[in-house]
Design goal:
The complex is a heterodimer. Helix content of chain A is 48%, strand content 10%. Chain A is mainly alpha-helical. Chain A has a two-stranded antiparallel ribbon. By secondary structure, chain B is of the alpha/beta class. Chain B is 24% helix and 26% strand. In chain B, a hairpin with a 4-residue loop joins strand 16 and strand 17. The chains are: A mainly alpha, B alpha/beta. The interface between A and B is medium-sized, with 22 and 24 residues.
Chain lengths: 105, 418
């Protein structure tokens, strides 16, 4: 575990840069994590996905999978890939301050 | 009589049924198992079929041979589960009442979920090896393959046996090398993961191994559709990969009946407590093996460790005691790496695979996360253990939970990695 300063706040992150404590998360931290993932600015469309994912994780206790996001948020897979290029499920989980999506080994 | 109904007589279902006949008082409990298919397939052997190293017949046995005579077996399709009424409806209209239900209906491939995949080129230039039938069809294709580009593509996670696609590539490398045409064969692994494996150390070490074998990895590749006429697959971010032979691992989903009965997630996997396998929704339903949504590998070794711990825990539960949260996600997998060698992985929910020796620290005889001939022999001898120990409900003398003993946390120093 390492600690890191994000948006002026010292937080713990794991070796892949995921927040260790979801409670550390703020919207400002999300914006900085997004920059690390190559997303310069979080638009309303991005926030729709992030908010859904945080909500979903609040009930299930885990970051949603790609399918979980598309079926639950109404955002199409194609759109999700243009918002969060390459691995959207992983990127969304990271930016939303959730753990890495489970179920992948 | 109180009733336990088990749905599915594959790896997990058979083990559960046989364990419970040893553990439960059969004057009090009746155990029924339902499966529409009379054949028990040795799925860990599918990987050998495309390379002519196992035949269809070798991998098929009668399910009833492996079920205790104390278990009532019904061979029919499961139509619906009514968890609110504790009933299972079968296709022949039989209604089974239960006190406890164990769902072990596994998972299967669904090529029709991806446009272009399961269409007119399926079985021609697009193949799979995740069922015995597809593995047999691929054998002929591989035998007659004269050269070109083979793309192995995982459509979406989770999949059964997540290392099998890499095994297929490494065995292809050895097969075509021995055939003398390796320089005419390009091998590509297109995976939605950001590397060969999702856990960092294994990803690096297995990634290096693929690299040495000249197998290219196309990372973060989420297929959107296949174009069967142009022979290419296209990702959501519009990358195109051409192929001469596409070996696909299509979407894996749980049984339709699980979804239809309101017990599944968006892929028909059934949400459970990952340490006890108790259904999130019903206090008298357990889900074991590939059918559950537990975040571990969908593999027989996992089902085996899970069932080993499940039996006594279940018995306690039927006596009104609390379930113990015992299962740690322990997984072993032997990865065939070609040329009579293999790699062994040992890990759980928390601990990623590391190099080391297994099961005895300092001795082995199996090498973790490194290639060795003994690992390959381990994989081959597992078939005997599967049929004669695991399926009979006997215990293997290995701890069902993972241990850190024998794992090298200082592997970088030992391997001289900077």
């Amino acid at each position: 575990m390492a600690s890191k300063v994000l948006a002026g706040k010292t937080v713990e992150v794991n070796e892949e840069g995921f927040l260790v404590n979801p409670a550390d998360w703020t919207k400002e931290i999300a914006a900085e994590l997004a920059k690390e993932e190559g997303i310069a600015e979080l638009t309303e469309a991005h926030w729709k996905v992030i908010d859904f994912s945080r909500q979903s994780a609040g009930t299930t206790g885990a970051a949603p999978t790609l399918r979980g996001i598309t079926s639950g948020s109404g955002v199409s897979t194609k759109e999700l890939f243009s918002l969060f290029p390459k691995g959207p499920a992983k990127k969304v989980a990271k930016i939303a301050g959730l753990g890495k999506p489970e179920g992948c080994v | 009589m109180k009733k336990i109904v088990i749905l599915g007589a594959g790896t997990a279902g058979t083990m559960v049924a046989n364990h419970l006949t040893h553990l439960m008082d059969l004057n009090e409990w009746q155990i029924t198992i339902v499966d529409e298919d009379p054949i028990h397939y040795y799925q860990a052997g599918y990987i050998f079929v495309p390379f002519g190293k196992a035949t269809e017949k070798q991998l098929m046995k009668q399910k009833k041979t492996y079920l205790s005579s104390k278990v009532r077996m019904l061979q029919t399709k499961i139509e619906l589960i009514q968890p609110e009424n504790n009933k299972v409806i079968l296709q022949d209209k039989t209604v089974l009442d239960y006190d406890f239900l164990v769902i072990a209906t596994g998972c299967d491939i669904y090529p029709e979920e991806t446009p272009g995949l399961g269409e007119h080129e399926w079985g021609k230039s697009i193949h799979s090896f995740y069922t015995l039938k597809t593995a047999v069809a691929l054998e002929e294709k591989i035998r007659n393959f004269q050269g070109g580009r083979i793309v192995v593509n995982v459509v979406e996670n989770p999949i059964k046996c997540p290392v099998a696609p890499m095994e297929f590539l490494m065995l292809s490398d050895a097969y075509f090398t021995q055939k003398g045409i390796r320089d005419c064969v390009e091998l590509i692994y297109a995976t939605p993961n950001s590397g060969a494996f999702t856990k960092p150390v294994a990803s690096k070490l297995i990634g290096d191994m693929l690299d040495r074998k000249n197998i290219k990895v196309e990372e973060d590749f989420y297929i959107e559709h296949a174009d069967p006429d142009a022979k290419k697959i296209i990702s959501y971010d519009e990358r195109e990969l051409e192929y001469d032979l596409l070996v696909s691992i299509p979407v894996n989903k749980g049984a339709d009946v699980v979804g239809k009965s309101g017990l599944g997630d968006e892929l028909n996997f059934s949400p459970v407590n990952k340490s006890t396998f108790l259904s999130d929704k019903f206090a008298n339903i357990f889900v074991l093996g590939d059918a559950a949504n537990a975040p571990t590998s969908k593999a027989g070794s996992v089902a085996h460790y899970a069932v080993d711990l499940f039996g006594e825990n279940f018995k306690r539960y039927t006596e009104g005691k609390e379930l113990e949260e015992k299962f740690d996600g322990h997984t072993n997998c032997f990865i065939e790496s070609g040329y009579g060698k293999g790699v062994l992985l040992d890990f759980n929910y928390e601990q990623e695979p590391l190099p080391g020796l297994f099961p005895v620290p300092g001795i082995g005889p199996f090498a973790l996360l490194q290639e060795s001939r003994l690992n390959h022999i381990g994989k081959l001898s597992f078939e005997w253990m599967y049929w004669n120990i695991l399926m009979r409900g006997r215990k293997v003398p290995l701890a069902p939970t993972m241990t850190m003993a024998g794992k090298w946390t200082d592997w970088e120093k030992r391997f001289n990695v900077a």
